[in-house]
Automatic annotation (TrEMBL):
CDD domains: CLECT. PROSITE patterns: C_TYPE_LECTIN_1, C_TYPE_LECTIN_2, PAN. Pfam families: Lectin_C (PF00059), PAN_1 (PF00024). This is Uncharacterized protein. Gene3D superfamilies: Mannose-Binding Protein A, subunit A.
Amino acid sequence: MNVNGWRILLIVVVLQSLIILLAKAGQGQTGSCFSSSFSRAIGYILRGFTIGEMKVSTVIECKRRCVIGANCLSLNILTNADGSFVCQLNSERKESGVKEQFVSHGAGEYYGLKEKKLCEDNGKSCDSATPWHAFNQSYFKLVDSPVNFHDAMKFCRAEKGDLASISSKEERTYLYKTFSENTGSLKWVGMNDIAEEGVFVWTDGSPFSVGNTRLFAPGEPDDAWKASEEDCIFLSNGSDGLGDIKCVQKLPYICETNYSLLFA
C-alpha cells in the first residue's frame, strides 16, 4: 500500500472512532428528550399549579425536566436580570381549560407540553411514558413489587437513586396522596435506625433534623426506644404519616432521584 493509501486508511479509522464515541455519548443520555413538542406563549405564565421550581441555565433543561416527570404538563420560564432562568414545572396546562390563572408576566414565557417522547440509545428507543413524578427538585416513583427494606434500597440505587427521603410535611403529603392513599399496602421510604436504636438516618445521606420526627403518624414510631427489630420506616396507606416495622417485611417502595443523576 502506498503513502496515500495509508493516509486514506488512517482517516477512515479516525472517522469510525469518532462515530463510535458520539454514539456512546448519546447512549449515556438516559431519558434524553427527542421529538417532545411544546406550545409557546411569550409574556404569559400559568399560576397555581407549580410542582417544582429551580434555577436552570437553558430553556432546554427546563423542558427536559418537565418531560421526565409523569405529572408535568407545562412549564413557566422566568428570565432573571443576569440572564439565567427560573424553571417552574406545572401539573396543569392552560390548553386543558385552566385559563383563569393564565396571566400576563413581563419576564415570563409559558410552554404547554403537546407531545412527550423519552428516548434512549441515541434516540433509537422512544416511549411516551415515564415512571418518575416531579415534586420540588426531585423525582419519585413507586415500585409495586414487595421486597424487604435492604432489597428496596439496592433496587432504587440501581435506578440511579435511593429510597425516598422526606424533607417536609408537604412532601410527605404529596407522596401519600400520589402513591399510598387507600392502596392497601404500606410503602418503604429511606428512614431507619438500623445502626443505633432511636437514632434515625436517611439511606441517601440527607441530613436528619428534629423536624423529621414530626413526619411520624400519631403513636409512631412505637418501638423507637426499645430493643427490637422494628428499625425500618414505612409510609402509611391509611393516614398521612410514617411508622416503623421490621426490615424483613416485604413492601412496595418509593424511589427518589434527581435530574443530574438521571442525565449522568
